């Protein structure tokens, strides 16, 4: 652990030293000046574009006196632009000599109110900075025909796009993407960046979006998120536009997608649709968590809810958008959605969307699991096939109503309906370390489940004439009704020293009905203290109630029916979990630093009733949860922050009730009524530095968390049969660190990213009555190189190592070291006659795993596209997936119970011929015009 911390701190110091390297002699210098008031234009934006095609080369911001320096520039002809809000944009033609330097002297700007002798032109400054908003004009970032917004963002300074579509600016993740300032399919920013055409965008604005409460009250609550706003071209604000794509290929592969938008001023209507069997899914991670129940189980962070364990212990297995070739299994997807935005009288703002999806997934898995039990342990091998069909219908809305200039109310309802059918067949064999049989058998399970979730949040905000004095109230309510029925058929054959002992057969049907309800109210009041500080007081109350009724019936060979109730697997639970309290926090916003600190007092009461045997468990706790944060701003985009937090996690009903779950005879589970709630303390240190103009950024953070009374497993393992019960343990720890440094080398048309991730976890379990301390350590260095030459070649290459080590105090002989190497390349070449060739290559090397799982996987995709018709509205593309036909799926996991290697089926080589057509039916509109001046200056 200490070596890990030392390495992280060393990287932090090394990268910081690199950032402090001596500045190069500027290629161009000068000053932006206003002669009318005889002063320099503080923080004016100066940009350089290519004279030939107007693509942005570089931009900087002048200092407080209007002076600017541009670090480096290759030989050639350029246009230099100076812009400032409220002034006439200034353009100058320059020619840069080889290895030379230019002094532009004073560049005179004119206030728009005094502009007289001006020329009207269509040229706008490529970059405009207004306070904390950076605005890029899209015409300065050339993209190929039929490119989407994501392709354009890759060309903007400081912006990168991960393989899964996540957009980052100077290393920071973009959490929200707006279209003309409005939500576009709330919750998934990739729906905008991967569906809207690049040529529909007029401007891209980058800013930190404050919370709804802070925007209205004007009081900074410290909550903000990086946001992109895509401003459409004027002809698209009253237009029908979008695209339709259809493709068919070998092995009966097909892929269709459509995106149609009808915008009319503030009224926006968008439709998305997809149908494919190429593993392009419509589920986001939040959808998966919501369906599996993990999202609602988040209530356990504040207390207990009813938790239903899956029959057979299978994971949910729903495919998630963006998993690429490593998606487990092969999926068929139908999905569609509608998004609508409008506002009336500048007082009512409406955003609503509805989505539907239907996904069928087929997964084959081969597993080699080394179970940790005493000094010997045992091995488990299995082969399984799972077919799953998941359907979802979701509707959500946000209605923001301004009552008057001092009050507003926002209502955000959400309704989700889901249906899931799955069937799994699993055959298995367990042996000891001498390859002697312990048990073998098979499991067949079938499950049908349905769930309806309805909820909503009402936020009321009130401000007063006194700045900083506000009151707000948040009311939340949620209702979930889920039903499940299934069959379970298993056969387990047990051996003693390799000699047949007995057979155990299960043949049963089960049903489960569960209802949960949640209601919460939070009221916050802020009072200013001086000019830069405020005191916030909150009061809150939350209540959760639920019932779960499970019935299990064994097969009766006498009657031929499932009419024998299995009392060990039948239970009827009801529970109530309430917590309430208040908090007091002080927040101070100073010119150079921000500080906040306070504490929350929370009283908790949990009651869990087993209606089957009238067993009642009651627990109550009172906790004081302190918190503090400190952020120091060295400059606009360079800061250091320290955060300290505490939280509690209540045990769930299934963890508390002493009911034995024997649905899987090899892995049984019993609750523990003596469980206590866990208490976690965490500290994080974060340093961020970015220079948008030189395209350098450095980011480093470390997070340390320690948990007392952590809820862990205590296992009894005898002859390959595991019985688990949750218990409390102290000393669980988690440390995570990451550092990255990015910089551009403009003469090489390149950008480089260096990164290092470190991870250390110490978990505790109990095995046959003995404590087992488990330590997992991983180090992940990475390197990325991006190269771009307009209309010739776009290239990105990366390498990543993941070095992992696991140690077990009870079984030191099971300690493992394994390494995964991943190399990637993505190259797009723009060929003569309008052809576009794309190649993506991924090479993965695994070592240190079980025999048969140390595989090397070269994965190559390629496509050739040709645009035609007016404006290249149509495109034909021939694609090949897994050109070498070597794609394989493999995964390793190590936890407190076992080390497991899994191989699973993935998509393999197929060819696809696709056709894309872009729609663009726009109303007539005048072209954009701005005022341009060619004042000589200096």
TrEMBL record:
Where does the source fall among the domains of life? Bacteria
Family matches, as Pfam families: CarboxypepD_reg (PF13620), OMP_b-brl_3 (PF14905)
What UniProt keywords are attached to this protein's entry?
A: Carboxypeptidase, Hydrolase, Protease, Signal
Outline the extent of the Outer membrane protein beta-barrel domain. 463-917
InterPro entries linked to this entry:
CarboxyPept-like_regulatory (IPR008969), OMP_b-brl_3 (IPR041700)
GO function terms (MF aspect): carboxypeptidase activity
Q: Which residues form the signal peptide?
A: 1-21
This protein is called Carboxypeptidase regulatory-like domain-containing protein
Q: Which organism is it from?
A: Sediminibacterium ginsengisoli
């Amino acid at each position: 652990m200490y070596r890990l911390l030392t390495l992280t701190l060393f990287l932090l110091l090394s990268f910081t030293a690199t950032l402090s390297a001596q500045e190069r002699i500027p290629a161009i210098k000068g000053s932006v000046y206003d002669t009318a008031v005889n002063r320099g234009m503080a923080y004016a934006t100066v940009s350089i574009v290519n004279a030939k095609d107007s693509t942005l080369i570089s931009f900087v911001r002048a200092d407080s006196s209007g002076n600017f320096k541009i670090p480096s520039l290759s030989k050639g002809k350029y246009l230099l632009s100076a812009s400032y809000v409220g002034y006439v944009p200034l353009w100058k033609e320059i020619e840069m000599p080889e290895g030379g330097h230019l002094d532009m002297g004073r560049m005179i700007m004119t206030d728009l109110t005094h502009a007289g002798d001006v020329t009207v032109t269509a040229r706008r400054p490529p970059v405009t900075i207004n306070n904390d908003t950076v605005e890029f004009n899209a015409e300065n970032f050339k993209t190929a025909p039929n490119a989407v917004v994501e392709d354009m963002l890759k060309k903007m300074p400081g912006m990168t796009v991960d393989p899964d579509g996540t957009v980052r600016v100077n290393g920071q993740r973009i959490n929200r993407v707006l279209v003309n300032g409005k939500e576009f399919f709330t919750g998934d920013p990739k729906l905008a960046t991967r569906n809207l055409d690049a040529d529909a965008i007029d401007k891209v604005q980058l800013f930190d979006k404050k919370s709804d409460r802070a925007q209205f009250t004007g009081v900074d609550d410290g909550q903000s998120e990086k946001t992109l706003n895509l401003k459409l071209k004027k002809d698209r604000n009253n237009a029908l536009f979008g695209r339709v794509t259809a493709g068919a290929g070998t092995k009966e592969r097909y892929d269709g997608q459509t995106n149609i938008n009808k915008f009319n001023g503030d009224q926006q209507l968008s439709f998305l649709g997809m149908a494919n069997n190429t593993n392009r899914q419509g589920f986001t991670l939040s959808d998966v968590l919501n369906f599996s129940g993990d999202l609602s189980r988040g209530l356990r962070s504040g207390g207990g809810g009813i938790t239903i364990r899956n029959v057979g212990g299978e994971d949910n297995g729903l495919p998630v958008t963006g998993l690429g070739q490593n998606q487990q299994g092969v999926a068929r997807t139908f999905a569609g959605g509608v998004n609508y935005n409008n506002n009336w009288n500048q007082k009512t703002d409406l955003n609503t969307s509805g989505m539907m999806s239907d996904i069928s997934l087929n997964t084959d898995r081969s597993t080699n699991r080394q179970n940790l039990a005493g000094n010997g342990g045992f091995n488990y091998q299995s082969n399984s096939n799972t077919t799953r069909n998941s359907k979802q219908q979701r509707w959500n809305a946000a209605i923001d109503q301004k009552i008057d200039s001092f009050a507003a109310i926002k209502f955000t309802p959400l309704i989700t309906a889901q249906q899931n059918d799955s069937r799994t067949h699993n055959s298995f064999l367990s042996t000891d370390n001498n390859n002697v049989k312990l048990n073998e058998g098979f499991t067949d399970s079938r499950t049908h489940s349905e769930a309806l979730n309805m909820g909503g949040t009402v936020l009321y905000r009130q401000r007063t004439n006194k700045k900083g004095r506000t009151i707000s109230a948040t009311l939340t309510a949620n209702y979930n009704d889920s039903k499940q029925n299934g069959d379970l058929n298993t056969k387990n054959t047990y051996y003693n020293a390799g000699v047949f002992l007995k057979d155990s057969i299960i043949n049963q049907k089960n049903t489960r009905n569960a209802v949960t309800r949640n209601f919460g109210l939070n009221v916050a009041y802020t009072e200013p203290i001086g000019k830069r500080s405020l005191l916030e007081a909150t009061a809150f109350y939350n209540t959760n109630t639920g019932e779960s009724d499970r019935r299990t019936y064994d097969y009766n060979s006498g009657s031929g029916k499932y009419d024998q109730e299995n009392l060990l697997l039948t239970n009827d639970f009801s529970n109530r979990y309430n917590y309430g309290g208040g908090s007091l926090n002080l927040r101070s916003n100073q010119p150079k630093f921000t500080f906040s600190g306070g504490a929350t007092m929370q009283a908790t009461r949990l009651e869990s009733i087993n209606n089957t045997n009238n067993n009642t468990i009651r627990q109550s706790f009172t906790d004081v949860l302190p918190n503090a944060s400190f952020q120091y701003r060295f400059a606009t985009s360079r800061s250091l922050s320290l955060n300290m937090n505490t939280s509690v996690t209540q045990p769930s009903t299934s963890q508390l009730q002493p009911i034995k779950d024997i649905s899987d005879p090899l892995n049984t589970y019993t609750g523990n009524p003596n469980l206590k709630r866990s208490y976690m303390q965490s500290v994080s240190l974060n340093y961020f530095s970015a220079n948008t103009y030189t395209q350098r950024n450095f980011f480093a953070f470390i997070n340390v968390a320690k948990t007392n009374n952590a809820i862990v497993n205590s296992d009894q393992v005898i002859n390959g049969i595991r019985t688990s019960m949750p218990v409390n343990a102290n000393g669980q720890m988690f440390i995570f660190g990451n550092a990255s440094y990015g910089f551009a080398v403009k003469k090489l048309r390149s950008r480089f990213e260096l990164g290092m991730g470190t991870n250390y976890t110490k978990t505790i379990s109990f095995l046959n009555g003995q404590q087992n301390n488990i330590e997992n350590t991983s180090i992940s260095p990475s390197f990325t190189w991006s190269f771009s030459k307009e209309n010739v070649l776009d290239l990105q290459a990366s390498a990543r190592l993941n070095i992992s080590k696991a140690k077990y105090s009870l079984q030191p002989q099971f300690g493992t070291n394994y390494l995964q190497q991943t190399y990637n390349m993505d190259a797009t070449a723009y060929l003569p006659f309008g052809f576009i060739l794309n190649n993506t290559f991924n090479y993965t090397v695994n070592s240190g795993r079980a025999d048969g799982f140390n595989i090397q996987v070269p994965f190559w995709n390629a496509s050739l596209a040709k645009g035609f018709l007016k404006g290249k509205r149509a495109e034909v593309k021939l694609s090949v997936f897994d050109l070498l036909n070597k794609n394989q799926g493999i995964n390793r996991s190590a936890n407190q119970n076992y080390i497991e290697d899994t191989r699973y089926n993935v998509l393999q080589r197929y060819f696809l011929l696709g056709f894309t057509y872009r729609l663009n039916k726009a109303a007539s509109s005048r072209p954009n015009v701005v005022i341009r001046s060619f004042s000589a200056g200096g």
